[in-house]
């Protein structure tokens, strides 16, 4: 890990950021994630358990080709004077990042957002652009206790310089598309397995597919609403702590924001749940910063 001063010179944009976020703090960031309370399952014993046939050799994906997911961003959120949590996010235009509400609702200071990165914490890569941002819009319906409307926008005063490593993603054109069965790509610096407690040093990604909300409700009874979208967790694929807020993508189009998984672990074969982008197209249009 580079020293704090190298990080500031090579990566961070403002002197204020250097005082607030040292390399050490970045390295110790806690992966953000929402999980269903295990108590919840005790109350609903009839809900099917985790799949039995989990392939132990697939721990949920592979390292991304560096700089191939140019819309992916990493977000550090100061949550108390002592702690920083880490989440993913997605660039949707040169001035707007979409992420999960639960990644930013407990913030006690501006967010540090890194774009064009492959390694996290960010090193001295010249592709990286960092922004220190406080203009956050959380969905007015966000409800932590029922994990509903878990979506937020972060807006930059000044547009991010787009490059071969930093390109916004497309939003869906057809709000009625449910993407059922479509092949999905989800990426993030989240924990690569249940046995690792820090974020991944490199961006990783996993291919899965959209399952029906009916099937997802079987796993998360009483939680999954129409404004959620879920992917299969078969073979232990899926999202883990630190992936929250990041992109669920079908054919180059953003269709979900990583929201929550099972408290039983990330590799147990349960679906991963997201905020369904097509439910929020109007809200995004109304609240994003103009590019
Ligand atoms: C924090 O964010 C706000 C709003 O985006 C901005 O005006 C302010 O300058 C930021 N603070 C620092 C120290 O950069
Ligand atoms: C969150 O949802 C619960 C359950 O529907 C409700 O009782 C509570 O009032 C909601 N909280 C907010 C802040 O809307
Ligand atoms: C999604 O799946 C449908 C039904 O199989 C298919 O017609 C459509 O082309 C797929 N879309 C994408 C973007 O893969």
UniProtKB/TrEMBL annotation:
Residues 1-23 form the signal peptide. One of its GO terms (biological process) is proteolysis. Residues 58-289 form the Peptidase S1 domain. The keyword Signal applies. It holds the Pfam family Trypsin. InterPro entries: Peptidase_S1, Peptidase_S1_PA, Peptidase_S1_PA_chymotrypsin, Peptidase_S1A, Trypsin_dom, TRYPSIN_HIS, TRYPSIN_SER. The keyword Disulfide bond applies. One of its GO terms (molecular function) is serine-type endopeptidase activity. It is found in: Secreted, Extracellular space. Belongs to the peptidase S1 family. This is Peptidase S1 domain-containing protein. It comes from Dendroctonus ponderosae (Mountain pine beetle). The lineage of its organism: Eukaryota, Metazoa, Ecdysozoa, Arthropoda, Hexapoda.
């Amino acid at each position: 890990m580079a020293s704090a001063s190298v990080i500031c010179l090579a990566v961070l944009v403002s002197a204020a950021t250097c005082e607030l976020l040292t390399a050490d703090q970045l390295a110790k960031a806690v992966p953000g994630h929402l999980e269903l309370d295990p108590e919840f399952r005790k109350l609903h014993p009839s809900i099917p358990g985790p799949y039995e046939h989990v392939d132990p050799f697939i721990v949920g994906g592979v390292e991304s080709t560096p700089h191939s997911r140019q819309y992916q961003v990493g977000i550090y959120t100061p949550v108390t004077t002592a702690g920083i949590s880490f989440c993913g996010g997605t660039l949707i235009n040169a001035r707007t990042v979409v992420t999960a509400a639960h990644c930013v609702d407990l913030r006690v200071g501006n967010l540090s957002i890194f774009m064009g990165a492959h390694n996290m914490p960010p090193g001295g890569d010249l592709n990286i652009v960092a922004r220190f941002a406080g203009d956050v819009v959380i969905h007015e319906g966000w409800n932590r206790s029922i994990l509903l409307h878990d979506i937020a926008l972060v807006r930059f005063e000044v547009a991010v310089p787009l490059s071969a490593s930093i390109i916004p993603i497309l939003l869906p054109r057809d709000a009625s598309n449910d993407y059922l069965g479509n092949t999905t790509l989800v990426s993030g610096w989240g924990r690569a397995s249940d046995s690792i407690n820090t974020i991944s040093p490199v961006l990783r990604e996993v291919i899965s597919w959209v399952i029906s909300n009916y099937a997802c409700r079987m796993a998360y009874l009483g939680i999954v609403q129409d404004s959620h979208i879920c992917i299969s967790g078969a073979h232990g694929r899926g999202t883990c702590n630190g992936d929250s807020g990041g992109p669920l993508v079908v054919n180059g189009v953003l269709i979900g924001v990583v929201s929550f998984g099972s408290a039983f672990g990330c590799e147990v074969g349960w679906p991963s749940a997201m905020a369904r982008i097509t439910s929020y197209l109007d809200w995004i249009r109304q609240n994003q910063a103009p590019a």
